Amino acid sequence: MRSSDETARAGQGASGLSAFVREDVESYLASHAEDDYPDVLVERLRELGAFGATVPVEHGGSGRPSQEVAQLSYELARGWQSLAGLVGTHLKLCQQMLRHGTEQQKRTWLAPMARGEQVFARAYHERGVGDPAAVRTTVDISDGTGRLNGHKSWVTNARHADRIVVIARADDATVGVLTDPHRPGIDIGAELPRPGMLGVSLAEVTYRDYAFDPKTEVIGGPEHDLTDALRTYDVTSYVARALGSADAVYESALRFVRETAHHRSPEARGAIGLRMGELSTQRSAMHAVWQCLTEQRPPLTPGAAKVFCTSALQELVRAASVLCGGAAYAGTLNALGRHYRDALALPIIGTPNDILLSRIGERELAGDDT
Fold it and tell me: What percentage of the chain exceeds 90 in pLDDT?
């Protein structure tokens, strides 16, 4: 059970983020181009303590429990998936630093990370590579100096991050190298064209003989292997993000229908009621999956929940856009269009749904009930 102070803090955090999304995010998107970097919103997130949610109090953060961190992802996704992606990546790297960093690294980085003074990005993915032990980016250490070489695809917030953690191979280990985007040896490519997840940068990053100190700039030290940790990547935050977007879309569609249905014919109102029933059922199913996941009811796993909810979101937002017609496609409900475009990315980011489905299928075929 929570203490009264903890309950009050949780309520203030949730209400503060909800108000931020309702007031700041909606106002910003109404007056700015969607592909502009949202400096003003990032500054507000610093003030709200969003960047320190997973950092313990003794290291300068707020040390929020996992359910409150999930609520943060949910609230940000209700407003704009791009913000959820920026903050979510940073929070995962805070956890990685906390679990794997040396004591000196934790003292150096966790407090400024928690304050949002040092926002981290991660360069992990490479085309055609699905396992951390197979990444082609390499680290060579000679005479006390490390050299990083390789090419990374789809690096979120690459253009505005203060540090980029690069996942690379060093002999038989997978390591995380802390790199400074302003130092020589880094080339951040052009912004990658895409239908959604705009505003926050997405680019390819190339390293050519990037020099670093292996003792201080490799998470956990030069021989610390992250392979197993990267293979057990948690996708729970993506379920929360899908749910946040689904709730925003459903509520927007419901408001529109309630305001306009009385102008329609009896036949049209019957069809509208049917469509709203479908949307409500899809949304309720997503909430039920989330409840099973947070209450750790077997056999549901985070991977299965991500596959279901990110797929269901695409169906829900598409149906809502059709239901609202031209007002959703080109009008005052253009937020539906943004949620629709952003939803396309959720099945392929984090651990892609196809990989999750393959793992689920392999467990089933092997008769593994865990």
Answer: 83
